Amino acid sequence: MARRRHSESRSPSPDDRRRSSKRRSRSNDRNGSGTRREGSPHLSKFYRDRFGNQSPDSYNNLRISNFDRKLSNEDVKEILENEFAKYKKFEIKLVRHNGDEDRFAYVNFEENGPAKDVRRTKLPNLIRKLGSRVCLDPTGVIRDQEGKYIPDRYNRSLMDRRDRTPEPRREPERAPRERRRSPPPSSRNRGRSESPVFHLNRDEPTRTLFVGNIPGDAKETEIRDILSKFGELEDVEIKYKQNGDASYAFVLFTSIDSADECQKKLNDKPFRRGCEKKFKIGFGKAQISRRLWVGDLGSWTNRDMLEKEFDRYGPVEELEYKAGDEHAYITYNDITAATDACKGMQGTTLDGKHRISVDFAKISREKARKRQHSSSSPDDSKRRKGGPRTPSQSDDSRASSPVSRPRSANESVNNGKSDVKTIQTVEQLKDQYAATWKGPISLKKSDYVINLHRVAGKESILQDFLRDEDGRVLKLNINQRLPLDDSLFDKITTMDMNELAVCIGAEHDRSLGGLISYLREKSAAGVITMDNVVTYIMGHSSMTSRLIQHFASNVDVLRPDTKCVLVVVKKV
Predict the structure, then answer these.
(1) For 26-84, how does the pLDDT look when each residue is reduced to its tens digit (9 = 90+)?
(2) CA distance 82 to 84
(3) For tag attachment on the chain, is the N or C end more exposed, with fewer CB atoms within 10 Å?
(4) What element of type H or E holds 503?
(5) Taken in order 383, 385, 389, 393, is the CA torsion positive or negative?
(6) What domain of life (predicted)?
(7) 3-state class of 328 per DSSP?
């Protein structure tokens, strides 16, 4: 018997060998010594379809889903707060998306590390308390070459395009999961210090280029000198890291052909002689604005032709075109008309033969100031068609403010402005500030359609975050409340104005009385939480009066006798 046992130990069966091999493989995966690391089984289908089975190298936020439906929102929040108590500052938001029965918990950590540590160490406890099907997804996984998240127009357009356009099967190396993460260190002989692979859109030429992988010491003048060889540049915007080094840039050409040629000839070329970094260039997406660029014009074009075709979509504030130009700029009184014209005129013919290109254009600070001064002129109505004035998208403050310097959190938008006329009625509000967003707000199964008149902050916040990829307005569902106290006042007034839009919400075709009464009864702000944006809705109160005084001291329409609300939209 001893000999048989000894023989068996020396010659394991095939089943024993297979089991031993599996144990070694699992051990290697856990210890990080294996050649392949399997993704967590607790990633949602939503995540897997977009990013594959593996998580990014670093992330600060979590999206938790598929928890037990018997648990209330308060139960889920309490469980998460208790589990994450050892970490420093974090924020938990529970939301339910439109038409979806499932709830989601978004957890945002201020510091690096906790989100990853939660998925590594807290999963057993969360499964036990939230249910066996619970999923923990990293969020905000699109990163620049420095590993930082890019909540910017180019990357949002990539995500939109990514969700609606399947990748060609003939190129498996470009599958979504491969482009969404850096390759393993062993692939393509890349070292640790090299940048992750860029996912660049090269299929749909636009005037906007995303220029990545630029050296940290790159200056705007150098970028302009290099890229202007391919055509006239309208704008260059460099994004910087916290240490002041350049990270990537957006470059806007005056023509699509110039941008297309630049992308083809500069992509993967060294930034400068002797520089190891090579350009990574793709096409971006222009910011929605009141101003349109119209290209592919020629000797066959005339002003009357442009005015006749584009005036159909709404009052044109300004037409910039000289005979012989290859492009024109058309500025509308409101952003809705510009959006409709951009979609309706794209690829059409003005003379029955030549097709034109249309894109959004940036409104310069100079034009915003010019518009402000011309609006106060007594001859204004004679020179151009009348209409409500929309603040410049590119300006940090309202168009009626001449101050272009940065202001502190405690400084009113209208500080130092003595000749600003006080707006006391909704009619005056409509005359002074165009309604640039109209859509439904839902409270307890009741919908209220409101017009948003932006009085401070960034127009792009409304257009980028409160509309879908096709420009349609999103329905806003109030899913939380916050008390109207000093802490909320301090929170809002210290927000970055570049990430904020402050609006007066006026009723459209139905009274806002029910919504306002509810907010007054609860003495609270209604909170709407969606991906990348939080919206606060408040009725008249002493606190909201202070907020209005802070952001737009000349606006006095939020009173007990007016059916208006204060709406603050914050990018997160």
Answers:
(1) 444 444 433 333 456 688 887 777 667 766 766 778 889 888 888 888 889 889 988 88
(2) 6
(3) N
(4) strand 500-507
(5) negative
(6) Eukaryota
(7) strand
